[in-house]
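Archive transcription. Copying these from loose printouts into the bound notebook so they stop getting lost. Printout 1 of 2:
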Amino acid sequence: MKSMLFILILFASVYPQDSHYWNLQYGTKSTLLGGTVIGSVTDLSATYYNPGVVSFFDDPKLILSAKVYQYELVTVINGAGNNKDLDYSSISPSPTFVAFKFNIDTTGRNRLAFSLLTRQSMNFDFETRQIGTERNLNEFGSNFAAGGLSLQQKFDEIWGGLTFSHKLNEFIGLGVTAYIAYRNQTTNYQTIIESLDSLNQISSFLALRNLKFNNYRGLMKFGVGANLNQLLLDLQLLLPA
């Protein structure tokens, strides 16, 4: 009990990641389990989850994810004011994953694999308008005010990687995947507020923000795997891009 309390106190200030494994899944097992998988896979999705265990698997030599559809819902709490949420939903094809491997020696201890995957993908559009008194919008000292908010964002991030995996023995494997990542992002933001005071004078506020960029970067993922027949243990390290 004391050790459990110590662990909880130790990790009390740990912050969550904004895009963890539950966001997108790769391979049959991970897709069916709906984001609960962070390792211990038995197919070529290990090039992403843990390259250390790629050398354990003889089959399959090729994996290609099927084209399925996914439903996404994005909600911004109080995005349009108090107790007024912004919602956006969409149904779109799920991101793809393809990987293949080949032996590079006669012993079968060393394997190379190539993988291409969609790491992040998002496309949403928020829009809202309000008309009322200044209490409902911003404090312009007016009798009447109207405003609107529009936000569109789209981004895609593709990772292409080469994996090297070495089997130390029948139980332990080491591996590394070197990725080249490409990100394409577009963001358009617009806020308009107009007010009319008791003297019929009009005040207005306009904010525009447009962003578009392409980004290339490199990153590496290291992995150690222990194959104990019915039990597969993983240890992974992802270097920041």
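Printout 2 of 2:
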Amino acid sequence: MIAKTREIANIRKLTNSLPTIRYVDPDYVYLAITNARCAEGESYVKVGDHVKVGQKIGLRKGPFFEQPIHSTVSGEIVGVVKKFHRSGKLTEFIQIKNDKKDTFVETAIERTPEEIAALTKDDFVRITKEMSLVGLGGSSFPTYIKFQTKDPIDTICINAVECEPYLSADHRLVMEFPYRIYNGISYAMQAFQAKRAVICIKKKYQDLYDCLTVAKMRFPNLNVEVKRVGNYYPQGWEIEMIKSGLGIHVPTGVLPAKLGVMVFNVSTIVGLYKAIRYNLPVIKRNFTITGDGINIPQNYRVRIGTSLKEIIDQSGGYKDDTNKVMILGGPMMGANLVRDDAVITKTCTSCIILQEKKEVEEPCVRCASCVYSCPAGLQPVNIMQAVKNNDKDALKGKLNIKACILCGMCAYTCTSKIQLTDYCRKAKKLAQ
């Protein structure tokens, strides 16, 4: 385990240090018609139509919200194809042939500082809704709903912790786009009339601290603190980060907004900057591809809708012909893929490619490792048993499955190699 941990640290150190490679002109992009939050969707375009960057080409429909689908390139509609989504499911995607001219939609106009300063909170709601901005750390929760809160917000908290193993896309984003981050923070503070903002980073990353501290000199009137928090997983969990960064305990089931705190992932705050400044949806994002199964671990700046297979090829392909484990997202909370025929959506942070190592699941020995490691204070082994017994009442009641964040710690620490997180995932569905 120690050797494996050192290997992960070395790989991450490499991708932390390397400049991000731009891969923003693929021949084709693929845009999902539905996603994990929106089970229904429709396309507004047909084969042969020509579209522009930022053009609305469809609409996803969620249970209580809608998400416009925007083209991320200019070019020609080829049709609808099926590929794997970040959720791990086979999904329909609109395929667009990139003409590589980057012709932007007419509504993509730069707002002046005076125009931005005149924006109201309702304007922020409208713009982020029209630009389909969502949580880019992986949550995909619509940002405009956050701006609709009626609760007074005192503090904007920026999550730049990136606590999952292997990942370093946000690390490079901070190093390369600090001014966009500070501008995005200033917009969020304006919308909520917040008094201060806190950027949370892991304490071990001196380079991030130095970069953000120096960049802040260009924003002398912005009340922003760079807070160094713990180096452990899951420090990036919203409740844990707020506790470490602000000293505020958020009870289970209570929104941070009720305590005067609004949280944004650092990639989302850059997306906010683009939406407010240029009236554009998220067109590109940082993406990590790494692991011991890929030849060249690397961070990329990619066009949303890029084929994962193309990025794998750009990284030298697979190390050898042995079986691989492929995870879209972080290794703790990501989705397993059965093929590399997947697409990088706006909420994809990474792809981890590992050499397959088969493990045999053994009977539970009641060691309580899963209980001790659970950040939410749950009893994963009892949750597993309740799932096997179809005990919905226990899951909803004393076992409190609603509090589970599916962080993966129970499965990671299990001495019997039981996939406890899968049981927790099933328990959540069972308790609905």
